[in-house]
Amino acid sequence: MKLTGKIALVTGGSRGIGFAIAKILSENGALVVITSKDSEKIKKAEAQITNSFGITCDIKKKSEVQNVLNKTIEKFGKLDILVNNAGIFPKIKQLHEIDEEEWNEVLDVNLTGQFRFTKEAIPHLQKTSGCIINISSDAGLKAYQGFNADAYSASKAALIVLTKCWALEYAKDKIRVNCICPGVVDTDMTKPFLKNQKDIEFMNNEHPLGRIGQPEEIGKAALYFTSDDASWVTGAILTVDGGESIK
């Protein structure tokens, strides 16, 4: 039980990668707060994750983000771990076809939303010498032929650099800040790209290890970063993508 007594907050924790992270942190002793815009999804997640506490939140709204932190501190008295996982994926379009509203929506959720949660969490993490994990993407590390999701790639690349900025800014407070960059993982977000066996085989072959990832594999990486096993690790960018980004 590597996280006994720890309080963790996982944004977008009701499904996919966020759910897997919340579950594995809980299984290792943490009390986990999960957020989602969908109250029904939160209820389902709470039923499946021991020691979890769900709070509905629109990451685009400062007041709702503040409400999450306030309720977390009211209920548990502290915060040890923040996992910035919430994110959205846009429709595949070339740059000249993207509406400005679509562009802004992706950056507001995937980048400014992470800023909002981190800003509100920092004063509490300073008290516990806590840690932050940013969930980016291997699409933030390099460009991929035919992967026309520019706002998504830009937001994920920015999150990688912010990880390093925050790691340096708050090292004096002993707050560790690290980043995980998944490849294609089997979640609701990727299902539209895996509609048939041909799509699945293509995507598997895009990863040198021969398959897409599972949410639990990202959860295990998060467990490492949140535990004392990573007590001397900050500013690290861990790629968990079956080798996709090194091709």
In short:
This protein is α/β, with parallel strands linked by helices and 247 residues long.
Secondary structure topology:
Elements: E1 7-10, H1 16-27, E2 31-36, H2 39-48, E3 52-56, H3 62-76, E4 81-84, H4 100-128, E5 131-135, H5 150-169, E6 176-182, H6 197-206, H7 215-226, E7 237-240
Parallel strand pairs: 1-2, 1-4, 2-3, 4-5, 5-6, 6-7
Organism: Candidatus Nitrosomarinus catalinensis
Family: Belongs to the short-chain dehydrogenases/reductases (SDR) family.
Protein name: 3-ketoacyl-(Acyl-carrier-protein) reductase
Task: Please provide a written account of the structure.
By secondary structure, the protein is an alpha/beta fold. The chain has a single domain (7-246), classed as Rossmann fold (3-Layer(aba) Sandwich), CATH 3.40.50. It contains seven helices and seven strands. The chain has helices at residues 16-27, 39-48, 62-76, 100-128, 150-169, 197-206, 215-226, and strands spanning 7-10, 31-36, 52-56, 81-84, 131-135, 176-182, 237-240. Strands 3-2-1-4-5-6-7 form a seven-stranded parallel sheet, sandwiched between helices. Strand 2, helix 2 (39-48) and strand 3 form a beta-alpha-beta unit. The longest helix has 29 residues, at 100-128. The mean pLDDT is 96. This is 3-ketoacyl-(Acyl-carrier-protein) reductase. It holds the Pfam family adh_short_C2. Belongs to the short-chain dehydrogenases/reductases (SDR) family.
